[in-house]
Design goal:
By secondary structure, the protein is α+β, with helices and mostly antiparallel strands. It is about 35% helix and about 25% strand.
Length: about 500
Amino acid sequence: MSDLSKSENEIYSLRKEKEQKIKDSQLESFQTSFKNSTPIDFLHREHKDIESGFKTDINASVRGRIVSIRSFGKLTFIDLKDETGKIQLVYSDKDLSEELIDYLQNLDVGDIVGVSGIIMKTKKGELSIYISNLSLLTKSFRNFPEKWHGLKDKETRFRQRYLDFVVNEDAKNTISTRFNILKLIREFMTSEGFTEVETPTLQPKAGGAIARPFSTHHNAMSIDMYLRIAPELYLKRLIIGGFEKVFELGKVFRNEGIDQTHSPEFTMMESYEAYTDVNGVMDMVENMCKYVLENLKVDKSIEFNEKVANFSFPWDRKSMFELVNKKFEINVSHDSNLDEVKELLESKYQIESESNTVGELVFDIFENYIEHDIVDPVFVTDYPIEVSPFARESDEKKGITERFELFAFGSELANGFSELIDSEDQAKRLKEQAIKKNDGDEEAHVEDEDYVEALQYGLPPTGGLGFGVDRFVMMLVGKTSIREVISFTHLKPEN
């Protein structure tokens, strides 16, 4: 039954011939449904105690894809796989009609079938179904990779992701785990009284994050529009509108580079809660992650990218300025003299910077020399106002915002803050961002007069969060590439 050595065209033609032979037979095939079947993993659990070499009188029906066929004289073994697992099918020529044998001889690896038969266990102890009837549901016209080799080439794996899921069980399990994590996040947020909402993916202005957007054109309205870089500004409009707890789990799009931890589209969970602040948001993030880890039964000691992190709770909270001061043995604050700090860093560490403020300088140093070395989960706080245009300024620390970012294994997992609710201050900061944009900074925020107008109606004290789902999944499943944890990734065309 193997035709692996043949060219693709020959294989296609041969399998079309087999399909026609099956159509010409009098046996039932190509049904539009096959509903009354049992999941394969259930059969394994239910009949695990059957003795080896014993054939029961229990009938069972299963459906799935053929992943291997092996013939030994008059005895044939077929491995069948469904979403839950794999089971062996067995038939002997001596027990079947000649018509059914001919029918079965036209099956190939990759075909999708429905099967009925008797539950048994082989002498080697493998649970099997002894075939009494089989219906071909879908014919496969292309060769699948051999099951013992699988798909090893990464480029092929991601271009033909559907094959990857069939032949690489780990790839399928990774995506299943991702779905479970999304489910658990939703469960937690709902249990905390948050309402799940949907906001526009196409937006007239790309706001809410520092990022370069994808642009398009709306013909009917004759305006340029943007794929959202964040749902933030619409979610805060909902808080202004009277919702007190909202969240959204969905895609955002950023026209930036692609690497191990970045994708042009990725999944974020954004939430906004009225009458809380940055500390309340950190507490919520910690509790959410704890809920996910406990329900997934993930060990608190997590290995990722050849490093081991302690995810035990509670997680540390450290000031960005403290981290910079400790690493470089300096004593810089937002009020420090910029030129003196620059001179010190250059003379002592050969660090040069074109930053225009102390806040920008500290942020650049943290970003370039510290964040990548953070392994255990840490909430980094005290972000400078210059890099936090939507965060509320601290009452106690001038030039510092009530903002945090959560880091683990050198990557940012979350960004949250006490929201800026002062409409005049917000308008001023957006004007400053607009100047940067006009000067060539494609990632700077746009000036959004409509959002400022909404703020003028009154945004209650609010804590906001953006949580990177993809990176969180990467860490929990131990995958070092974001491509492994999303179903389909973006690749350059082959031609």
